[in-house]
Write a structure and sequence with these properties.
Oligomer: single chain
Largest sheet: 5 strands, parallel
CATH superfamily: SGNH hydrolase
Number of domains: 1
Structural class: alpha/beta
CATH class: Alpha Beta
Number of strands: 9
């Protein structure tokens, strides 16, 4: 049975394209799920998204959805300067009208893995990455994101999601690409778990979902995939209460 502790509480989301929806994502123009992709994924409404389903089940309210398509946690030279989640801009943009979030959901990192963001400074030096700046390292950037969120929203509960695995129902022989740039996605999940523990955050280990979610290409959930993700989150929430 779901707890009632989140009823009427305000949730803010700090994420990437998986959590976007045109009309809800801030800033405008940052949504992956726009007119075309809404149709392809059959994700049209608030109630079709994983977060809309979770919030409705909890009786909670969305405060700010700061999800930007293509964004990373770490600074990346190929991305817009302020789009990375560990920036001062994004870690301070989760309140609205003087109201601060009761819960912050951090669901991001898949683009870091996909773009070859180094896990650590040692990793960057070993593989001769273009930048060895601390802000360009995933472990430093994820920890820095949580540190800033703790400073900016000290009363908020923070949920950290590891990276789930997608599939394609329409493609029977689809195989997920677990390695990108020579690094297994599990390594990024390990960093998320470690940082969450360090900053006293709640970890939702979606990487270990028993059922992969349906997606357009392995990453962006379809309507069916959204329901799989929300059910997994709610199940884990129930188990931990």
């Amino acid at each position: 049975m779901l707890t009632k502790k989140y009823k009427n509480k305000y949730f803010s989301i700090l994420g990437d394209s998986i959590s976007t929806l045109e009309g809800y994502s801030v800033p405008k123009g940052a949504a992956f799920y726009d007119k075309d992709y809404k149709r392809l994924a059959n994700v049209w409404l608030y109630a079709d998204t994983w977060w809309g389903q979770v919030l409705d089940a909890l009786g909670a309210e969305l405060l700010v959805n700061n999800s930007i398509s293509g964004s990373t946690v770490a600074w990346h030279p190929a991305l817009e300067w302020a789009s990375y989640a560990s920036s001062d801009e994004r870690t301070s943009a989760l309140h609205k009208g003087g109201v601060s979030p009761d819960v912050i959901v951090l669901f991001i990192g898949i683009n870091d893995w996909g773009a070859g963001v180094p896990l650590t400074e040692e990793f960057a030096k070993k593989y001769s990455a273009a930048s060895c700046e601390p802000r360009a390292m995933f472990d430093f950037a994820y920890a820095e994101t949580l540190r800033k969120l703790r400073v900016n929203y000290p009363k908020a509960e923070i949920w950290c999601f590891t990276l789930p695995i997608g599939r394609r129902l329409v493609e029977k022989n689809f195989e997920y690409e677990y390695y990108r740039n020579g690094v297994h996605i599990a390594e990024f999940c390990n960093v998320i778990r470690t940082c969450a523990e360090k900053y006293g955050c709640r970890t939702f280990d979606l990487y270990y979902n028993e059922q992969p979610y349906d997606s357009l290409e392995g990453y962006h959930p379809t309507a069916i995939g959204m329901r799989t993700l929300s059910a997994s989150i709610l199940d884990k929430l129930t188990d931990e209460e």
